[in-house]
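Q: What does the assembly look like in three dimensions?
Context provided by user:
Components: two
Sequences:
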Amino acid sequence: MNISLNITETIQEWLIGFMPEGVASILGMSIVALIYLAIFAVAGLYLVLLERKVAAWFQLRIGPNRVGYWGLFQTMADALKLVSKELTGTVKADKFLYNLAPYFVIISSLMALAVFPFTKEFQAFDINIGIFFLIAISSVGVIGILLAGWSSNNKFALIGAMRSGVQTISYELSIGLSLLTMVLLTGSLQLSEIVETQKEGWLILQGHVPAVIAFMIYMIAGTAETNRAPFDMVEAESELGAGFHTEYSGMKFAYFFLAEFINMFIIAAIATTVFFGAWLSPFGITESIPWLGVFWFLGKTLMLVFLMMWFRWTFPRLRVDQLLTLEWKYLLPINLVNIVIMAIIVWLNLTIKF
Amino acid sequence: MEKYIFYILSVIIIVFAMASVSSRKMLRSVIYLLFVLCGIAGIYFLIDYNFLAAIQLTVYAGGIIVLIIFSVLLVHHIEMELEMAKPLRKSMTGLLCLSGLAVFLYTIYNNDFHVVENSVTTSTADVGAKLLSYEAGGFILPFEVISVLLLAAMIGAIVIAKGRKLTDKNDDVL
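A: Here is the predicted structure of the complete assembly.
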């Protein structure tokens, strides 16, 4: 079986067959964008379902089981319901910014989705600064949250947004530095090259001790970056209602909600790419069948997503001061020392390679 | 293809730059400024200078704009609109802007631009090597000077944020 997954080129070549080049390239881009939008929607909806199932499992419930077999269409039904709902707004709010805010969040997570190597050739945009691009994009999303909080004209929403701003800006440092630790091993920021170096063993094995520390820091900071429990100060239900999206209804609320789950997927996918060898199979068992890479990539990513859900239903929520202490007094210094250790290990050639 | 994208990006930059200075609501002009900065990042992507584009996104869009939003949100009466200036002031400003535009256009039309034949993608390794090289054309000295400056700024921020040490009231009595 030989399925060509190099979507950008395959579609482009197929289109050039019967239309002028300029039109073909624009149409090709639109089709790729639509494919990614579809991935975005489907992944978002099924992550919501997964979260509900996992939550039910942890709380000894059954979870959604009415719509479709095993509740598989529950979130689809929810989405349809949200589409048909009225879009409410607050009086005296800045309507333009209020309507604009969800798109910041959703566009930044869509752009991040484009650079992941789902398998050897299934990658829309193999940019040479891959990881740095991901960090850059994720720093834009917070603007949407700040705007949403302010333009809701609601004090709880504003407090939630300010907390989110503080949290995201602080934890972005840890994410950047822990990824930088791994870049020392690969020597490249390009995601396809990072995968290439992992053919000699996944980076978490190559880098052994400092890599494991970096992975732990990355997962903690990643959970905080997506504003999930135990770091969900932003939407602490008992204090702030629903936080920054209290005033949003219908589809605009769904945008925030979907983007939150996609961000979780993105954090897990970055960890898969950088620490666990992306689409590479363990010991190269399916190397002869390239399209199975998608299966491995999604499998590893979903394992990490499950880990984050496990965090959510296990740990109690932190206070704001504890949150900032954790980042600035513990994670950041550990991270800086860790980078030096990793540099020494790479310099003395103490990495494990197969 | 590239030509059209360039024109689209320039229109975005120019329109939002004008909207940014002419908007009378504070937070809106910050957002327009964000669009201008994203448009500039788009131009960097267009000329295949990905590193600078990502820097533009992290430092300006993600850093400076978030900082500005924070400081705007802390301002009292943020919902108030900017007052209109007096006609004399308006015309003076207009004159100044026109002369500035004239200087820019004059330099642009008199400069001899060199067209690069093959587009070269600058990699991060090239940037890093240039930044740390101490041979002719290297940037090690400015790099070090800036790092010292940043360190000074960081220490200054910590000193200001810490404030004076809280003293126990009993200390004054004794």
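Follow-up: Residues 50-73 of chain B form the longest helix (24 residues).
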